[in-house]
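Re: that backbone. Tokens:
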């Protein structure tokens, strides 16, 4: 069978596109310098946030050689701690809860994004490859100060 040269060219070109799309979907997050490792939730009463060992003192803690945990409290209209400081190329598990209403914990320009629901602890493990300062914003309307609700995440080299 003799395939016309142009036809073969288009066949090859469309194969390259299809493979390209699959690669983009599979590895798209790598290009953003972040890898989503895990995603899960547990519960906590909003009244207990101040008595909870993890959240009475919002902080970042080293728990293993390359493992960190960040306990983050969101409330109208801020995040604690601020800034959140973590090292690059280490697994960081964020535990985020709310003291009052529904917020979100969204790290701008990455896929680190979770709803923060009072009564629940949103947990996700991520790894930042790109050092720098990232904005942390709230994507759920939470009141008159919603648009000013922002913090920062510093990823140290
Ligand atoms: Cu918190 Cu919008």
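Recovered sequence:
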């Amino acid at each position: 069978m003799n395939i016309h040269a142009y036809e073969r060219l288009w066949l090859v070109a469309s194969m390259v596109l299809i493979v390209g799309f699959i690669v983009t979907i599979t590895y798209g997050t790598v290009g953003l310098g972040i890898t989503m490792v895990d995603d899960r939730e547990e519960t906590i009463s909003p009244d207990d946030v101040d008595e909870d060992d993890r959240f009475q003192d919002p902080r970042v803690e080293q728990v293993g050689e390359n493992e960190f945990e960040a306990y983050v409290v969101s409330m109208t209209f801020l995040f604690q701690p601020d800034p959140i400081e973590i090292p690059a190329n280490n697994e960081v598990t964020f535990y985020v809860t709310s003291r009052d209403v529904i917020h979100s914990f969204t790290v701008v320009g990455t896929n680190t994004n979770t709803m923060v629901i009072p009564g629940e602890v949103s947990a996700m493990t991520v790894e930042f490859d790109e050092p720098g300062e990232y904005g942390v914003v709230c994507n759920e309307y939470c009141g008159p100060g919603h648009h000013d609700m922002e913090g920062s995440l510093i990823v140290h080299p």
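The chain has two domains: 1-31, 35-156. Residues 77, 103, 138, 140-142, 146, 149 surround dinuclear copper ion (CB under 6 Å).
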